[in-house]
Design brief:
Layout: E1 3-6, E2 27-30, H1 37-50, E3 53-59, H2 63-75, E4 79-93, E5 98-111, H3 115-123
Parallel strand pairs: 1-4, 2-3
Antiparallel strand pairs: 3-5, 4-5
Helix pairs in contact: 1-2
Length: 130
Amino acid sequence: MTMAMASSSPASPIKQTNNNDNIKKNRIQVSNTKKPLFFYVNLAKRYLQQHKEIELSALGMAITTVVTIAEILKNNGFVTEKSIVTSTVGMKDVAKGRVIHKARIEIVLEKSEKFDSLIAATANGKVEKK
């Protein structure tokens, strides 16, 4: 497991260890409180129209949401699973003045061979059954 440090303060000297994470165009960071589940499912489909693969990532309680999104996309034939990485991230709790560790998951999904035909069928109002 790897550990990265993050802070809620933008001026803080503590940053995530991998700066490339912040500039990925095909990453969707999921929160379980900000948007409904199918917002992320539809967003993933739109990202897949532009990219060969996407990365879903989440911390803590949002991990369940990321797994559900990945399973919906897989079960409907839109993607195949490429990799799953779990880790622990240390985050500074400013109020308590200590570091708290949160679980993190990153799921990389690759566009399936039938993705384009499924998207076309959805756009035409036809929903294919498995």
